């Protein structure tokens, strides 16, 4: 961080949580799929258990369906990890009087997402802390036209005390008021 520029790297889909979830989905989906096929062919395709006793209709079909779904979602997550979807950076520049949010999307002509907001468009920063079953923390850039732009991906659970310090630091750097929202 310099006196006129703050640049924050954003981690995309290439993180431990995504990799673990992908592996679980592919392995579990494959097992369900093979168990469904075993019940159809009446031949054991899994080495660690006997699945030939499963009746094909309705249990075997359900296992084939869930296995196919899990492997499909696992393959999709595999591609997002390979392409590192969601990665990028936030750049706050006093010199240019602009905030730049850059993210990488899916391959295609619009792969790079580039958002730029001038300081005069900004109203405030908001620190959001949601507790409960699905906790979330984030810093949101509030614009004068009432749009709210999250600065971090929603799936990333950040340490509330570190994020609060970061929000205070950004608020001072941008010379914007800091709001707090507890949900």
Description:
It contains three helices and eight strands, in the order βααββββββαβ. By secondary structure, the chain is of the alpha+beta class. A four-stranded antiparallel sheet has the order 1-2-3-4, with no helix packed on it. It has a four-stranded mixed sheet with strand order 7-6-5-8, with helices on one face. α1 (16-41) packs antiparallel against α2. The longest helix has 28 residues, at 56-83. It is elongated. The two termini are 31 Å apart.
| CATH class label of the largest domain | Mainly Beta
Let me know the average pLDDT.
90
Please count the beta strands (DSSP E, at least 2 residues each).
8
Task: Output the number of helix runs.
Answer: 3
Number of domains: 2
What is this structure, in a nutshell?
With 183 residues, the protein is an alpha+beta fold. Helix content is 38%, strand content 28%.
Features:
38% helix, alpha+beta, four-stranded mixed beta sheet, four-stranded antiparallel beta sheet, 2 domains, PH-domain like, 183 residues
Write the layout of secondary structure elements.
Blueprint (H helix, E strand, L loop, with lengths): L4 E6 L5 H26 L14 H28 L4 E6 L4 E7 L7 E7 L3 E9 L5 E8 L4 E3 L9 H15 L3 E5 L1
Parallel strand pairs: 5-8
Antiparallel strand pairs: 1-2, 2-3, 3-4, 5-6, 6-7
Helix pairs in contact: 1-2
């Amino acid at each position: 961080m310099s006196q006129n520029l703050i640049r924050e790297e954003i981690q995309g889909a290439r993180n431990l949580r995504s990799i673990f979830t992908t592996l679980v989905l592919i392995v579990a989906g494959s097992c369900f799929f093979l168990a469904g096929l075993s019940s159809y062919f009446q031949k054991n395709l899994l080495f660690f258990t006997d699945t030939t006793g499963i009746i094909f209709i309705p249990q075997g079909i359900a296992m084939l369906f869930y296995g196919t779904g899990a492997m499909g979602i696992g393959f999709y997550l595999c591609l997002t990890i390979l392409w590192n979807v969601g990665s990028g950076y936030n750049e706050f520049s006093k010199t240019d009087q602009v905030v730049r949010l850059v993210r990488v999307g899916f391959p295609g002509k619009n792969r790079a997402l580039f958002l730029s907001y001038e300081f005069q468009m900004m109203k405030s920063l908001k620190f959001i802390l949601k507790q409960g079953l699905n906790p979330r923390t984030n810093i949101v850039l509030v614009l004068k036209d009432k749009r709210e732009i999250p600065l971090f991906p929603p799936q990333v659970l950040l340490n509330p005390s570190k994020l609060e310090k970061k929000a205070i630091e950004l608020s001072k750097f941008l010379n914007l008021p800091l709001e707090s929202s507890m949900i």
